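Researcher: Going back to the complex we discussed earlier. I've cleaned up the inputs and rechecked each line, so this should be the final set. Can you rerun the prediction on the complete assembly and write out the structure?
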Amino acid sequence: MSSVAVGILSGALMGIVFGFALEKSRVFEPGMIVGQMQLRNWIMLKVFLTAVATGAVVLAFLHGFGFVKLQPKAALYAADIVGGLILGAGIALAGACPGTTLAQIGVGYRDAIFTLFGGLAGAVAFSYAQPWLAKSLIGTGPKLLFTDLAGIAYWQGALALAAVIVVILALIERARPWRNDLGADVDGDVSGEAARPRNRLAPAE
Amino acid sequence: MSPFDKAWSPYAAGILIGLLQIPAFLLIETALGASSSYVTVGAAIAGLVDPSLLKIDYAAKHIAANAKNLWQVALVIGIALGAFVSMKLSGAVRAPISPIWARALGSSSSSLRYAVAFVAGFLMLFGARIADGCTSGHGLSGMAQLSVGSTVAVAAMFAGGIVTASLLLRRI
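Model: Rerun complete. Updated structure for the full complex:
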């Protein structure tokens, strides 16, 4: 099988698993993502940090035993900060990130189709601006890892990161059990359970 | 943790997502990511209208029909399929627009929500392409690889998200 066919087939299978996990964890719900950004719902951070820790353990072994090369992106601080801020603003207003937008479309959220088209337009606009932005803002930089700075092996740093994340998650979970953040309709909308009435304008009986 | 459940623990789902790095690194020699696929699809479509776009190296590199580009397009299409299958198995029913938006935007107008979603999508991808990655590429993959640049990008992403959700959106 050609490498392109392997790419498409494995991408589709991995995507199905990814989308399944995003839907089951409910992290793709606008209620979860906006809730996380308003610091009132912690499911997104829990899924995110668990996936980072798992990836770190997996890569500690795969890289430590020499099966794979790491693929870090270059450290471009100005671009990372400016781009990250704009990306974050978009995530809050979309109630989605570029990957979870597709999960929202999969379950039938109509506004996510507009997020997708806006995203395609943004990607095209960037492509036109890229030659200029590359010179003025983005530039070039080294592929720098924290373990390079600390002078230790990647696998040691990766396992240490995973251990720290496990401790942080245990503390968050103790303060805020994940079931409390699901909402009655498992969409991160916990307003119905809160003291605040859902329909403030209802006439007094 | 059955496929028919409406919700799994975030830890079970997170482990499953993290394990996807194994096939990504072994088969495609890349890390999980999602946002470059928007350039691949967007530039391929826009290139039909304006072929001069494809003279820009960045666009040409992303629309090349190689394993890495098409892998990521297949990945994001798979995400939609996987979410659809999961929803069908659990019998979860969704409204066409999440009920949180009427409160967050202070209006139940669906046209307003569609306009905000379009602008949000634009910002999301314009920002992700400046930073060279999104929640997946910088977040899941970059942080797992202990990348200094990715950690800065993720911190900026959460900062931008928290400020925007606090100032521009109402409490959900």
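Model: Worth noting: Confidence is low (pLDDT under 50) at residues 194-200 of chain A.
Researcher: Good, that matches what I expected from the previous run.
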